[in-house]
Specification:
The protein has 1 helix and 10 strands; from the N terminus they run E-H-E-E-E-E-E-E-E-E-E. With about 120 residues, the chain is mostly beta strands. It has a single domain, classed as Immunoglobulin-like (Sandwich), CATH 2.60.40.1930. It has a 6-stranded mixed sheet. The protein has a 4-stranded antiparallel sheet with strand order 2-8-5-3.
């Protein structure tokens, strides 16, 4: 449609490059609560910490979306070993600008497992 603004492409990166794996064998896939939540840069927050578990090896996607469903960031790999993963994410858009105040979602996709968590940005200026 003429005159419609398009959303910029999401930041796409590898889980392997952005997350560390902890020792252990999880019994089930899981997306743990995100912290700090809500996020407030004025209070000293520097990024969200994500933690998830994969019970079996395979492909995994961790997708961050705004309240409209636009993808902001994607962490993806086609073959990850089972284990506990943790990493941080600075809430930035693809152009490096800070995300606006509001509600966002992080969703883990692994095989048939899909789980989302709400994340709230109070202040990010």
């Amino acid at each position: 449609m003429a005159g419609c603004a398009t959303e910029p492409a999401p930041v796409t990166s590898s889980v392997r490059l952005n997350f560390s794996i902890k020792n252990g064998q999880p019994s089930a896939d899981s997306l743990y609560p995100v912290f700090p939540n809500p996020f407030n840069r004025f209070a000293g927050d520097t990024g969200f910490v994500f933690q998830f578990a994969l019970a079996d090896s395979g492909s995994a996607n961790l997708v961050i979306q705004n309240a409209l469903g636009d993808q902001i960031a994607i962490f993806s790999d086609t073959s990850l070993p089972a284990g506990y993963y943790y990493g941080s994410w600075d809430p930035l858009a693809a152009d490096g600008s800070r995300l606006m105040t509001g509600i966002y979602f992080v969703t883990l996709h692994h095989g048939n497992y899909i789980n989302s968590r709400l994340i709230d940005i109070l202040e990010n200026e």
